[in-house]
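Subgroup meeting minutes
Present: P.N., E.W., G.H.
Scribe: E.W.

1. P.N. recapped why we're keeping a running log of single-chain structure predictions: easier to compare across weeks, and new members can see raw inputs and outputs side by side.
2. G.H. added today's entry (375 aa).
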Amino acid sequence: MLWNIALRTLLCDRGKLLAGLIGVIFSVVLVNIQGGLFIGLMSKASLLVDRSGADIWVGHRGMHNVDFPHHIPERWIHRVRSVPGVESAEPLRIYFSEIALPDGNFEGVMVVGVTEGSELGRAYEIVDGPADALSYADGVIVDQCDDDKLFDPTIGEIREIGGRRARISGKSHGVLSFLVTPYIFTHYDRAVDFAAADPTMTSYFLVRVKPGADRDQVCAAIKSRLDDVTAVPAEDYAATSINFWMTRTGIGLSFGAATCLGLLVGLVMVAQTLYAMVLDRISEFATLKAIGSTEREIVLLLGAQSTVVAVVGISIGIVLSYVIQAIFSSPRAAITIPLELYLASAVLVFVICLAASALPYLRVRRVDPHSVLQG
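Output recorded in log:
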């Protein structure tokens, strides 16, 4: 009975019902797309860590961002390899440099030197060029998504990086940094030449532990042997790198403000729709009260209307969010919407819709049932 009255009341004025649904759909889509863009953007801040294949990252004490390393002596790696529980450890170099462009200008790049023959630190997958691209003389790997910045380099093309000869020997896809500087992957020893850096120093040690080894204990053992380093599990360093940008820029605040604004708009639209429906049928609510409906039944009726609007709007909004993600997500503007975000947005908007039913209830509560009986 209650649901029947709620549905009939909503369907009697389909224009207002549509306005309410649009508000809910807009809120759900905005929360998911904003959240997906935020997650996709921040995942770039830890991309090298997430794709490194390492269990533990070792760097200079106080390391706070994977893209801004403070270099450490390369010879320390022997101490790391001797720690019980360490299966393998490889050095990784990260330097800022410049690549020469065909028009005579230069583009800032981030040179990443990885050990040839090891999977540690190999954050890319070659999609164009030979699989052993780094074994070629002066070989470097660039990303297809950076073609516009690098003036469409082709496989085999000769460029200069840091004043040294470089050959484009392979291309990856979707390996983009949080900064505007493209990643350039190359051989570990060659990275020093491209940045004119000290060959006795390196940026990180990437560690893979033996099966069953406790990573926290291995980290503690590494730090006990090397006082000036920080050793943390890979996921912890990924979170540290993301937190660096979250706390030192206003990016979290700006995304959060936009999301809250969308929720506010949705709340206002749903509340306004329900309120307008109540005003149009205030005599009907007075009749319900005159024939004995209690305050609790009136509240349940309004709650049922909000539930119908919320469930239909949330369902459409989630489907629309999924379609937008599938069509518009790209490596440069990734939209990453995990299942947890879908569920959180649905629960949040549903609660807001129920809260929005409070406004029309305040109006119904003041209705005098005697006005109906008196004609």
